[in-house]
Design goal:
The protein is α/β, with parallel strands linked by helices. Helices cover 47% and strands 19% of the residues.
Length: 326
C-alpha cells in the first residue's frame, strides 16, 4: 500500500481513536471528574454525588470534586478548559450559566460557547416565604395580602437574599416588578445568612429555593405564600403558584451536566444515556424528592436550549437590578 492510500486509513483511525478515547479510559478504570462549582453539602453537591454513585455500572468510577469560588465561576472555568474527552464534566447552574455572564464585568469562560450540554438534572421550585410572626402581626395570609400591604405601605417591607445578583435577589426584583410594589432589598453574604435573618425577623420575606426552605416551612417558623413555578408543586401541597396572582410569573432553580466544548458527540451521547437512566430510576426520584428536587432528564439539545433561553431572560433583569461584580 503506498503512502497516499494510507492517508484515508490513518485519518479514520485517528478519528476513531479520538472518539473512543474517553470510553476506553472509562473501561480501563480511569475515573471521571465531576466538578461541582460550589461547596460540599448543598443540594447541587448532594444530587451530584447521588448520580455519581448510580452511573458507576455504566461509566465506571465518577469522582465528585468541589471547586467553589467567584459565584461558581472557578469550578465552571475548570470544566471549560479541561480536555474535551469525557474525563471531566461539571454542573451548570442558573447562576453559572444564566446570571453570572451579565453580573460579572469579566468572565473567565463563555457560557454559551465553552460547554457541551449533556442533560438537565433537576428543577427546584422557588418559594416566597414570610416570617411567621411577621405574617401574623400584619395579617398576611396570602400572596395577595402581601401585595396589598406593600402597595399601601411602600418601602415598609424588606426582603433578604444571598447577595447582590443572587438568584434570590433577581427573583425578588422580578416579583416587585410583576406585583407593582416596592420593598427594600437587603443582601447577605450567602443564602444561609439570609435564611437566618428571615427566621430572626430581621427581614420580612425571602424568595428561596424549596430545598433550602422546606424544613422551616414544616416547622412553622416561616410561612409559604406561593411557589414561583408556573404550576403548584406536588412537593408543597396546598401552596399556590405565584402565576395565579401575577400572570406569567415563573422562576425555577435548575442545574444540569455539561462537558467542555468539542467533546465528541459519541461521548456526549454515552454520558447522556448513563445519567438520564440514573435520573429516571425510582431510587433517584425518591432520594431527590427528599431534597424537594424534581429530576428532569433531557436530551443535550433540550438542556442547551434551556440555558440559552435563561441567559436571554436574565440579561434585562440583572441590568434593571443594577447588580454588578467587578
Amino acid at each position: 500500500m503506498n503512502r497516499r492510500s494510507l492517508l484515508p486509513v490513518l485519518s479514520v483511525a485517528l478519528l476513531a481513536s479520538a472518539i473512543g478515547a474517553a470510553p476506553a479510559a472509562w473501561a480501563q478504570g480511569k475515573p471521571i471528574r465531576l466538578i461541582v462549582p460550589y461547596a460540599p453539602g448543598g443540594p447541587l453537591d448532594v444530587t451530584a454525588r447521588a448520580l455519581a454513585e448510580r452511573v458507576q455500572p455504566a461509566l465506571g468510577n465518577v469522582v465528585v470534586e468541589n471547586k467553589p469560588g467567584a459565584g461558581g465561576n472557578i469550578g465552571s472555568d475548570l470544566v471549560a478548559k479541561a480536555a474535551p474527552d469525557g474525563s471531566t464534566i461539571g454542573i451548570a447552574a442558573v447562576a453559572t450559566h444564566a446570571i453570572n455572564p451579565w453580573l460579572f464585568s469579566k468572565m473567565p469562560y463563555d457560557a454559551g460557547k465553552d460547554f457541551a450540554p449533556i442533560t438537565q438534572m433537576v428543577r427546584v421550585p422557588n418559594v416566597l416565604v414570610i416570617n411567621a410572626d411577621t405574617a401574623q402581626r400584619l395579617g398576611i395570609r396570602t400572596l395577595a395580602d402581601l401585595i396589598a400591604y406593600a402597595r399601601k405601605n411602600p418601602g415598609k417591607l424588606n426582603y433578604g437574599s444571598g447577595g447582590n445578583g443572587s438568584a434570590g435577589h433577581l427573583a425578588g426584583e422580578m416579583f416587585k416588578q410583576g406585583a407593582g410594589i416596592f420593598a427594600v432589598h437587603i443582601p447577605y453574604n450567602g443564602a444561609n445568612p439570609a435564611q437566618l435573618a428571615l427566621l430572626a425577623g430581621q427581614v420580612d420575606y425571602n424568595i428561596d429555593n424549596l430545598a433550602a426552605a422546606a424544613a422551616n416551612i414544616k416547622a412553622g417558623k416561616i410561612k409559604a405564600l406561593a411557589v414561583t413555578s408556573a404550576r403548584p408543586s406536588p412537593l408543597l401541597p396546598g401552596v399556590p403558584a405565584m402565576a395565579e396572582t401575577i400572570k406569567g410569573f415563573e422562576v425555577d432553580t435548575w442545574w444540569g451536566l455539561v462537558a467542555p466544548a468539542g467533546t465528541p458527540r459519541e461521548v456526549i451521547d454515552r454520558l447522556n444515556a448513563a445519567f438520564t437512566d440514573a435520573l429516571k430510576a425510582p431510587e433517584t426520584q425518591q432520594r431527590f424528592a427528599q431534597l424537594m428536587a424534581e429530576p428532569v432528564p433531557t436530551t443535550p439539545e433540550q438542556f442547551g436550549q434551556l440555558m440559552t433561553r435563561e441567559r436571554a431572560r436574565y440579561q434585562p433583569v440583572v441590568k434593571r437590578s443594577g447588580a454588578k461584580v467587578d
